[in-house]
Amino acid sequence: MSTDRTMLLLGGTDTHVERAAALGTRVVLVQHPEKINAFQTGLVDALLMIDYTDWDVVRPLAEAAKEVWGFDTVVCLTEGGLETAARLNDHFGFGGTPHQVIKRLRDKGAMRDHLAATGSRLTVPSARVTDRASLEAFGERAGYPFIVKPTDTTASFGLTRVNGPEELPAVWERLRALLGSRTDRGTTLFKVSEFLMEAYIDGPEFSVEAFSFAGRHVVVAVTEKLVDEAHFAELGHAMPARLSPADRTTVVDAVAEFLTTVGLADGPSHTEIRLGARGPVVIESHNRIGGGHIGELVRTAYGIDLAAYGVGWPLRAVQELAGEPRPVAAACVRFVLRDPGTVTAVSGVEEVAAHPDVLGAHVSVRPGDTVRSVRDNWDRLGYVSVRAADTDSAVSLCERLINEDIHIQVEAPVTGPVLEPAL
Predict the structure, then answer these.
(1) What is the pLDDT of residues 1-12, one digit of tens each?
(2) In CATH, 6-95 is 3.40.50.20
(3) Which of 62, 126, 188, 326 has the fewest CB neighbours in a 10 Å radius?
(4) Which of 35, 59, 56 is nearest to 47 (CA)?
(5) What is residue 413's predicted lDDT score, i.e. its pLDDT?
């Protein structure tokens, strides 16, 4: 659909830039200097290279850019720029989701406060960490285990599970070390400014990929999260989620209720939820497309391009979805993990990528690289994504490919004293 309108696109991946350009709109791209590449510059009409997380830098440059290019909306689908984009839309009077609502989603503590204030059934006891004593007090009040996490980072960075009071001294020292630092793996866009404590949520975990059209929430997919309780790194995602009809309805209804409660009325959302002894409980939510190749899985399993909707809806350059789509296939992504050590050889990736049911395959490590113990999503070594006729088949195929067909040889680190050879 062609339009003579202009958007200011804040941040974004190659896919976001490509979809925006395909709409026929003029695209003014604001991109972080560390993220820009030739593909993006070749598609856009103008480029501003600045740190788009810095409001004091962005605001005057955006005002000047509006005078030159006369953009009609500000669009962002990446975590680091969501708040800045909302502030700009508020500043220029463009409408869309207000910054106040985005702040509730970006700040995990603000989300819990809002849910508690509205009496929502979808939350758990929580409190901000103020000092060592606050950890002890929360453990006594909420019980063990409980979770401590930064309020405003991503990819499970800095998450800690506190299993008992004996762990509190070490947890407090870790929090002190992280406070004020920036995420040091994958991106440096996020700064650790505060920690939140939450009661532990049991049960299987899912995410709901939805799109909201002026307050009407359309669930596009329910994603089954493949996890390991030993760490916070996600093992993978599969869709359609293997849920009974009753449980699926419970999850879908809970997310629609949540989106209305927090005030999200337009655009994509990725809401993580657990279904356990407490019933449905929201872990966190984002007004963007889910990471970890979820957008690719949605295109494969449901034929819906969430990125195209995400950049097109603010200008009403796409049609509303009439309702929840039916799956046309199943899809799965599994992430490659290995034990700690030094990589000595990598093979099988090209062969896996050539498999007719493989959507993508990539391994980021090379011989000589160090594999660390798994803590969060940044410690994953690669991925394989596939399509299949059903979810069981998709998950099985992914597991076989990453565990049997991709070979990463790792030499374990020396754990004991190294003895000099006898002469």
Answers:
(1) 445 799 999 998
(2) yes
(3) 326
(4) 35
(5) 77
Segment holding 83, helix H or strand E: helix 82-92
The residue type at 380: R
Identify the three-state secondary structure at position 340.
coil
Model confidence at 392: pLDDT above 60? yes
Average pLDDT score over residue span 191-198: 86
Strand order in the sheet with 341-347: 370-371, 341-347, 407-411
For 97, the token pair is 């989701």
Q: How does DSSP classify residue 416?
A: S
Burial profile 219-238: b = 16 or more Cβ within 10 angstroms, e = fewer: bbbbbbbbeeeebbbbbbbb
Rounded Cα gap, residues 301 and 298, in angstroms: 5
What the block records as the tokens of 327 is 């799956």
Give yes or no for residue 379 having a pLDDT over 90: no
Report whether 298 contacts 306 (CB < 8 A): yes
Q: What is the mean pLDDT of residues 184-212?
A: 83
* pLDDT computed for residue 231 by the predictor: 60
Phi, psi of 35 (to 5 degrees): -110, -10
**Residue 9, SS3 per DSSP:** strand
pLDDT of residue 184: 52
Cβ count near 2 (within 10 Å): 8
Dihedral of alpha carbons 249, 250, 252, 258, sign: positive
Element (H, E) at 337: none
Q: Do the two domains 202-328 and 330-413 of this chain adopt the same fold?
A: yes
Domain borders along the chain are 6-95, 125-199, 202-328, 330-413
| Beta bridge partner(s), residue 383 | 335, 362
What is the C-alpha separation between 260 and 215, in angstroms, rounded?
8
How many CB atoms sit inside 10 A of residue 338's CB? 17
pTM over 0.85: yes
Q: Could you give the CA distance from residue 39 to residue 43 in angstroms, rounded to a whole number?
A: 7
Summarize the confidence of residues 137-141 as an average pLDDT.
Answer: 95
Query: Can the peptide bond before residue 145 be classed as cis, meaning omega within 30 degrees of 0?
Result: yes
List residues bridging with 150 in a β-sheet: 195
Which residues have C-beta within 8 Å of that of residue 416, sequence separation ≥ 6?
A: none
Superfamily grouping for domain 125-199: ATP-grasp fold, A domain (3.30.1490.20)
Closest by CA to 95, choosing from 338, 275, 267, is 267
**What architecture (CATH level 2) is domain 202-328?**
2-Layer Sandwich (3.30)
Q: What is the mean pLDDT of residues 38-45?
A: 96
